[in-house]
Amino acid sequence: MKNEYRKEQWVKIGAQMNADRARRIKIAKTRRFDTIAAHGIYDSDHAIQYNNASLMEPIYLSPAQIYHNSAELEAGLAYEMPNWCYSRFGNPSTYFLEETYALLESYGGDFEASCCATSSGMSALRTATDPLLVRDDSLPPINLVSSSQIYGGTYQQFWIRRHQEQGIEVRWVVDPNDMDEWSRQIDGGTRFLFGEFPSNPLTSVFDIEKVANLAHQHNIPFIIDTTCASPALTRPLVYGADIVIQSASKVICSSGAAILGLLTARKNMPSRVGCDEMKADFAKWAQQWPFRDNGPSVSPMSAILALNDLKTLRLKVAQMSKTCLKVAQYLDTHPKVDTVHYPGLNNFPHHDIAQKYMKLVDTDKSMFGYMCAVETKENHPDDSTNARKFYDALKMIIRATDLGKIKTVATLNAISTHKQQGEEARKISSVKPSTCRISCGTEDPDDIIADLEQALDKI
Description:
The chain has 18 helices and twelve strands. The chain is α/β, with parallel strands linked by helices. The protein has a seven-stranded mixed β-sheet with strand order 1-7-6-5-4-2-3, with helices on both faces. Strands 8-9-12-11-10 form a five-stranded mixed β-sheet.
């Protein structure tokens, strides 16, 4: 019978599908964080009707769906009904992840958000910023304003790809807690504000709500990367941010089995550019249009691997945060350590701001994430001799550039994640030659500390 349906009938079916999705989202929003992470909007009815009663969300490796007739094809490709025309646009497995993650980032807020999964955190950043940097001759020359306390890859995308290659001005905020500095950088050509919370690798923090309010005063969105916190600790959309970026390859997919990114956006965000549809639902609009054309899609396998890891996010982040606090406290009193950067330390600059924004979800308990940075004592500021001795002596702790894994990983950032941006940019970001980032995993903290102690003994 469906082979005979006309387009109007398929559009009607699409409306019913969208209504069912909205119903399941409404139900999910009544649940607690861990329950949402475990179930998302995948329920028994959906499993039985569409997925052969699969207990867990299935992996759809097929790149495309079959249509009943030309009318369904036409309705689907016109976005008049949900469909999986091609995995570059969307895929059921990716959909399960996106719906669950949008609920987690918006948890605790009385607003709606949507999510777009991408092939990496950097592609999520590109997808988020491309539509806001389009040409508009009615406005002054384009610029973006960003905290200088950011991941080296983000710096490269802004400074090399945007500024040097495209001529877009990048204005750096050296102290993201100085609201006057943010304000001075904004003019009629500013398209968005950007920050990282906590920053990679020095875990700097700033007042999310104040920066978001400043952006909205100028009718521009605030974009924030919270990879080193995750929604288990910090949900910036609740405090007014418009777009949240995650390198989901990190603690979201802590098993280390996949690489992907997540872009989550509040609906009805401000912007000086773009159509009304873009502002109304940025993540889904981006997925249907520029994302479709640029093709930074994530593998369905990676999406399901990340979704399975996501189900226990709060539990892992809680354990990793407790461990990192104990590690940071140990390092902070060690005679061979000069400085420890960790928001949970009482001597950390803006510790009070970290306490406000970093709380284990569904509790009143402040927790400060799984990552700290340590600087060993050196003979002079530009030296890294002792840092290298310490780093090379690590045995259990993994020497790599990754973070957010169930295994503890250490990185010398000046010669790895932040090498390409150059010495001057590293100084602006306060990344020293001796800076060693430590991403704590789920091991027993005493075992981590024992490895750090024997390595520090080699100095």
